[in-house]
Design goal:
Number of helices: 3
Strand content: under 5%
Oligomer: single chain
Length: 82
């Protein structure tokens, strides 16, 4: 991780984010000055925003599928009565 070595022996995927954050933190007057760089580094490590976005897309897709299934079910019932 912060060593710079990735799992395959090359540079780690988040190393550049770590360097930016580390340099900022070593020079800043207050930790909050580096908050955005910290956020970028943590996003690279954990993909929290990415997973949150994917989860929201998935939930919306599931809602649409349920809604379409209910409309289809309701439409079939209406067709049988006609």
């Amino acid at each position: 991780m912060a060593s710079g070595w990735g799992i395959t022996g090359g540079k780690g995927r988040c190393y550049d984010f770590w360097i930016d954050f580390s340099e900022c933190f070593s020079r800043c007057k207050e930790p909050k000055d580096c908050a955005l760089l910290r956020e970028d580094y943590f996003e690279c490590l954990h993909h929290g925003k990415e997973y949150s976005r994917r989860n929201a897309v998935y939930k919306e897709k599931q809602r649409q599928l349920r809604e379409a299934a209910q409309k289809e079910k309701g439409g079939e019932a209406g067709e049988h009565h006609t």
